[in-house]
Design goal:
The complex is a heterodimer of chains A (95) and B (318). Chain A is mainly α and 95 residues long. Chain A is built from 3 helices and 2 strands. Helix content of chain A is 40%, strand content 6%. Chain A is extended, with a radius of gyration of 18 Å. In chain B, helix 1 runs antiparallel to helix 5 and helix 5 runs antiparallel to helix 6. Classes of the chains: A mainly alpha (95), B alpha+beta (318).
Chain lengths: 95, 318
């Protein structure tokens, strides 16, 4: 067991989203998206875009990700950030 | 300046993974919560493994036409697997065990540490419907005629149930089981939880995407590690129940952000089987937040994933 005892000097307040419907994944995640104004705007824009594409188009996802192609960022990332931000863990093949 | 908050961490190895559980800014009950969480993971691993012929699951698998008295955790896991089978319209099917054994994955094994990409999987058949009907009576269970493998949901369930013990034990927590990760509250730097999506061709390098998974879970299904050669053919562990063969033509990895790790894990596998040609339509139809990597290296994501993705690259570096 490892116990770190560093004292805190800075803490950022976060908003917890409470999910009450374990089967309503779509509604839950949409409501979560709306919690952040920037994310909400992107989400709504993507919905509008998604409704305009031909169903089953294999390039749909690529088109959504296309803004990242020129900058190396997803649409929600901070401008000018080209390197991957610090992460707390990585999801991948089990080691 | 941001200073790391105090953390209480424990690690264990289970289900072929190194699992780390951390409570951020732990409260007085954090140590007990961590111990309970670790017991849950150990319990799932010991009871639901298919690699120990004496495990409760394998004893039931030995006679799948008979009723068996099994521990509560096995009943709960099989019930969840059945639920996953129904909600995925049969795409998630633990009865693929026989195909895995046929293909040489009957025992726990070491896989090549370098990427071994599978031969193109067989395209998914259009017709799919749930067909598995296990039965339950108190602490007894009937598998319904065929042995099952809970490998496609077991670790997700262990992470889900462990996370339930850690929620409220401090200001935040993470359960990191490699592919399956669940978080809650605040991260050690006092902010939100950022989770990288692994580059299948360079697992130690920069991720291909970063997602904000605060109060959420991320799971990844990848053929980076669990691929092997059997009778001259490259095989992998993601079997399409519609064909009985490795599926997911044109895909290397799929990650899903969902409300809990088991849900995320199930959908990574169900989406993977749709292959590169069908995954975007299926993810859109289901409203799933998914990021996937194609065999030619493209990094793609569903519209529902955009609110979670804070950074990404268009292509995974080989």
């Amino acid at each position: 067991m490892t116990i770190a005892t560093t004292k805190t000097t800075t803490m950022t307040t976060t908003t917890k989203m409470k999910t009450t419907d374990p089967t309503g994944a779509r509604a839950t995640w949409r409501s979560l998206a709306i919690a952040t104004p920037v994310a909400s705007a992107i989400f709504l824009a993507s919905l509008a875009w998604a409704s305009a594409v031909t169903p089953g188009g294999g390039e749909a996802a690529t088109a959504v990700a296309a803004p990242a192609a020129s900058t190396g960022q997803a649409p929600a990332s901070a401008p000018g950030q080209s390197a991957a931000p610090k992460t707390h863990a990585t999801s991948g093949a089990s080691k | 300046m941001t200073v790391a908050l105090p953390q209480l961490t424990q690690t264990l190895t289970a289900m072929a993974s190194r699992i780390t559980l951390t409570v951020v800014d732990p409260g007085p009950g954090a140590t007990a919560a961590l111990q309970q969480a670790m017991r849950v993971i150990d319990d799932v691993a010991a009871s639901c493994t298919r690699f120990d012929p004496t495990s409760p699951l394998m004893r039931a698998n030995a006679e799948p036409d008979a009723w068996h008295r099994v521990p509560a955790v096995v009943i709960a896991a099989v019930r969840e697997a059945h639920h996953a089978h129904l909600v995925t319209d049969g795409r998630f099917d633990p009865r693929v065990l026989r195909a895995l054994v046929r293909d040489g994955y009957g025992e726990s094994r070491q896989f090549s540490p370098t990427p071994v990409l599978a031969e193109p999987g067989i395209a998914a058949a259009a017709d799919v419907r749930p067909s598995w009907e296990p039965a339950f009576d108190g602490d007894r269970m009937l598998l319904g005629g065929q042995p099952i493998d809970l490998g496609g949901i077991g670790k997700g369930l262990a992470v889900r149930w462990a996370a339930e013990h850690l929620r409220g034990a401090g200001a935040g927590f993470i359960v990191d089981a490699g592919g399956d990760i669940a978080t809650g509250g605040i991260s050690p730097d006092g902010g939100r939880w950022s989770i990288g999506i692994e580059n299948p061709w360079n697992s130690n390098g920069e991720p291909v995407a970063v997602v904000d998974a605060t109060d959420a879970a991320v799971a990844t299904s990848s053929i980076r590690l669990r691929s092997w050669t059997h009778e001259g053919h490259v095989r992998h562990h993601l079997i399409d129940p519609r064909t009985g063969e490795p599926g997911g033509a044109g895909l290397v990895a799929v990650s899903v952000v969902a409300e809990d790790a088991a849900t995320a894990e199930v959908w990574t596998k169900a989406l993977f089987l749709e292959g590169a040609s069908g995954i975007d339509a299926e993810a859109a139809a289901r409203g799933l937040a998914a990021v996937w990597i194609t065999a030619d290296g493209r990094v793609c994501m569903s519209a529902a994933a955009l609110p979670f993705v804070t950074w990404s690259v268009p292509r995974a570096a080989h």
